[in-house]
Write a structure and sequence with these properties.
43% helix; Rossmann fold
Length: 270
């Protein structure tokens, strides 16, 4: 999915509706990756942090614990539905606010934030160079950015395993893996004006629960979930084989799949 393409609105509606339904399970699955990235960003008391593509809001709450009551966490997402879920879950925290916008065109003032963060919210921009230049513009001197993004599909068991079981590897939409090349990422950030760029390879076995929960997540979001949303009849065709394959894992009561990501960080000159 590329923001701004002719299919964007329909894609976002279907994706975010599915994601909203399984948000607690996805949060359980992806939280370790987000927390590792928050650790790299190292938000401090009283800082203003932008959460790019905050989705259903878990990372907003996690960052808010670091900035404290004197800080602010700005949750930005293009989806009104996901922002409404985030507001319902975490909107009572006075440190958290919400902005619905395409982050590529987000219009916060120059130098108004201390840090920018994202858990898988930066891979789908129509013009990633403009997006990162915009994030750079909003950061104060000495500010920093940290985000996690997927490495190659073939390295990511979390997506490659279910689509292999479904025998549909050749049908995968590659946009979520658009930052698989670290040199492309480095060049993108350098041209946007960032310094001290660090790109760390990070692998983590992640789980959303047992067999039923894992099947539900894999058929709702991710590479296979995207195919099922486009063709709902596909679910009944692939679910039996997926259940058998997952049941054969070493611990079907808590099924883990390897997530292979880059944790990327960079800063703005003082």
């Amino acid at each position: 999915m590329i923001y701004g393409s002719k299919d964007t609105v329909d894609w976002i509606d279907r994706h975010t509706t599915a994601l909203a339904k399984v948000a607690p399970l996805v949060d359980r699955q992806l939280s370790p990756l987000g927390l590792a990235t928050i650790g790299i960003l190292n938000p401090c008391s009283d800082e203003v942090i932008l959460d790019i593509g905050c989705g259903a809001g878990q990372t907003l709450s996690q960052i808010a614990r670091h900035v404290g009551p004197g800080g602010r966490v700005i949750g930005n997402d293009i989806s009104a539905l996901l922002l409404s879920v985030a507001q319902e879950r975490f909107g009572s925290n006075p440190a958290i606010e919400f902005i619905k916008a395409d982050a590529q065109a987000l219009a916060l003032p120059d130098g108004s934030i201390d840090g920018a963060f994202s858990r898988f919210g930066v891979m789908g921009f129509k013009d990633p160079a403009s997006a990162f230049s915009n994030f750079r513009r909003m950061l104060r001197p000495g500010g920093r950015i940290a985000f996690c993004c997927w490495r190659a599909l073939e390295e990511n068991e979390i997506d490659h395993f279910p689509i292999s079981v479904a025998k549909r590897v050749d049908q995968v939409q590659r946009a979520p893996f658009s930052f698989a090349d670290p040199e492309y990422l480095r060049d993108l950030l350098e041209k946007a004006g960032f310094e001290d760029i660090t790109i760390v390879k990070y692998d983590e076995p992640v789980s959303c629960g047992g067999l039923d929960d894992t099947v539900e997540v894999l058929l709702s979001v991710g590479a296979l979930g995207q195919m099922v949303r486009a063709d709902p009849d596909l679910r009944s065709k692939v679910e039996p084989d997926l259940r058998v394959a997952l049941s054969a894992r070493s611990n079907p009561a808590s099924i883990s799949l390897i997530a292979a990501v880059w944790i990327v960080s960079a800063s703005v000159a003082d």
